[in-house]
Specification:
The chain has 3 domains: about 160 residues, Beta Polymerase, domain 2, CATH 3.30.460; about 140 residues, no CATH class; about 110 residues, Sandwich (Immunoglobulin-like), CATH 2.60.40. The chain has 15 helices and 21 strands. The longest helix has 23 residues. About 35% of the residues lie in helices and about 20% in strands. The chain is of the alpha+beta class.
Length: about 500
């Protein structure tokens, strides 16, 4: 997977694809108005914080310029904001700060006819009207840079961004109801500063170019959220790819956004195009995962004491999910770079980014008869299944493999043959037999794709490649028709590391 194989068309398509994922400026402007409105509310004379210094700022994807629309069309956007108050931990408890902010949010919601806010362990959530389609998570905190500097100095740790550290409220903290200087620590400003430093040359150059094009007096007139670098656009692609990859599966183990963002920023070397950034970042990403004994460690750039991959040590499935995602992303990029047409480029990205989004981004329009499109649509539903692993072997289709027969058996009934796109009763035993003209030795792999509500509810959505040596038979595959819906079977012949033959999808409709 190397950038030199790309051409101008691939570079252009990737830029269009990334821009298609980006939020409209109006979304950032609405978020900006919302948190400034609440900031003004906290500073009014009747506020519980009227006598305090208050700083309100965004954190997370809106702050970093990496927000994307939710995959589910009815889901809300997340706007994370931080409310920093100069309350003393020697005089007030976490519980007092958390409750005081909650009372202000309740009054604010009542004033503007909004739903009452919801309290959580660390923050409060304020839901805006349905048409706004976003909610605001509000985190209360107090400054803690001086103490954190002392603690880091005492252990000879790096002091980068330490002065921006804050102490946050947390109901699960043992000192939540007690006067204590021991609170949970965070550093959203430090993290944001670190990320922007990682892309500073490209960011500044693009902001300056926008200033000149728009005839502004200075760069400050160009809001940061309007500037888009290849790093930010690449992160948006990775997040969408991740969201689609785990869409119909148990997504508890999917890679977190902060892990993807941190590893991407560490891997970024001022590449000038989205395509170059995506390729380079995916190549380098896992080299920044440290091994400390048996522990995988991704230090928080704003606080090296925090391991962003801490969950990986509690369950190996977190690390496995990340590795599977990374392998799929690398393969999808390679297939996109190898594509010789716009249609092949779309097919490479559609399973993990969504066909509608990809086609819209690159300006593709469907063609063909209604019958052709209907048949293609059935196949595409299977080919575009997010859990369907891409073919990671280099393709060299010098041979042929076909699924020459398929039979189903029900208890008490005779075996019956069915054809591609045929229908079989639920509960049947299925037998697929393939043949190939590829001379041995070779390896056989099968890929099973389930779709439909029943398989999704059961979280039984295979899509990886299964070695026939560990399955039943050699060129025979046995399955059970458990879930109603449209499913597929495909056989692959691999020789000396190359996929030399593939059968194509054999579609099975289970009723």
């Amino acid at each position: 997977m190397t950038a030199p194989s790309a051409n101008h068309r691939h570079t252009s398509w990737m830029q269009q694809l990334a821009e298609g994922l980006d939020l409209p400026v109006s979304r950032y402007e609405a978020a900006d108005r919302s948190y400034h409105s609440f900031s003004e509310w906290l500073e009014r004379e009747a506020s519980e914080f009227a006598d305090s210094r208050v700083r309100v700022y965004t954190q997370g994807s809106f702050r970093l310029g990496t927000a994307i629309a939710p995959v589910q069309t009815d889901a809300d956007y997340d706007l994370d904001i931080v409310c920093e108050f100069d309350w003393s931990k020697h005089l007030r408890t976490q519980a007092e700060l958390h409750a005081a902010l909650g009372r202000e949010l309740i009054a604010y919601a009542r004033r503007y006819n909004m739903q009452a806010p919801t309290p959580w362990n660390r923050c409060w959530t304020l839901n805006y009207a349905d048409e706004a389609r976003f909610h605001m998570d509000v985190l209360p905190c107090v400054p803690d840079g001086q103490r954190q500097r002392y603690l880091r100095e005492s252990t000879s740790m790096a002091l980068d961004h330490v002065d921006m550290s804050v102490s946050i409220t947390d109901k699960e903290h043992p000192q939540f109801h007690s006067i204590s200087i021991d609170w949970s620590i965070s550093n959203p400003n430090g993290y944001a500063d670190w990320l922007y430093e990682r892309m500073r040359p490209v960011f500044d150059a693009r902001r300056l170019q926008m200033m000149l094009v728009e005839a502004k007096a200075n760069v400050a007139e160009i809001p940061a959220f309007r500037v888009r670098t290849p790093l930010q656009l690449a992160i948006q692609i990775f997040k969408r790819h991740r969201d689609m990859r785990f869409l119909d599966q148990d997504n508890a183990f999917k890679p977190t956004s902060v892990v993807l963002t941190t590893l991407s920023a560490l891997s970024y070397q001022q590449e000038g195009t989205v395509l170059e950034a995506v390729v380079a970042i995916l190549q380098r990403m896992d080299t920044f995962i440290e091994s400390r004994g048996q522990t995988s460690w991704i230090p928080n750039p704003a606080d090296p004491r925090e391991n962003l991959a801490e969950a990986w040590s509690t369950d190996v499935r977190y690390r496995e999910a990340f590795q599977e995602w990374l392998e799929d992303a690398r393969t999808d990029v390679r297939l996109a770079l190898e594509s010789g047409s716009q249609e092949e480029f779309i097919d490479a990205w559609s399973p993990r980014l969504g066909r509608e989004l990809v086609e819209s981004a690159v300006g593709h329009t469907q063609s063909g008869s209604l019958i052709t499109r209907a048949f293609t649509g059935a196949i595409r539903k299977l080919r575009d299944a997010p859990h369907r692993a891409p073919v990671f072997w280099p393709l060299s289709q010098t041979g042929m493999v076909v699924i020459e027969s398929a039979h189903y058996v029900r208890d008490g009934f005779r075996s019956q043959q069915f054809s591609n796109d045929g229908r079989v009763p639920v509960g049947s035993k299925l037998v697929f037999t393939a043949s190939t003209n590829v001379p041995s030795p070779y390896e056989i792999y099968w890929q099973i794709i389930n779709t439909g509500a029943e398989a999704t509810r059961a979280l039984d959505l295979p899509g990886r490649f299964e070695d026939a040596k560990t399955a039943h038979g050699h060129l025979v595959r046995r399955e059970t028709a458990i879930y109603r819906g449209t499913h597929s079977v495909e056989c692959f012949i691999v020789k000396q590391g190359y996929c030399v033959a593939r059968s194509g999808l054999f579609v099975v409709n289970i009723e």
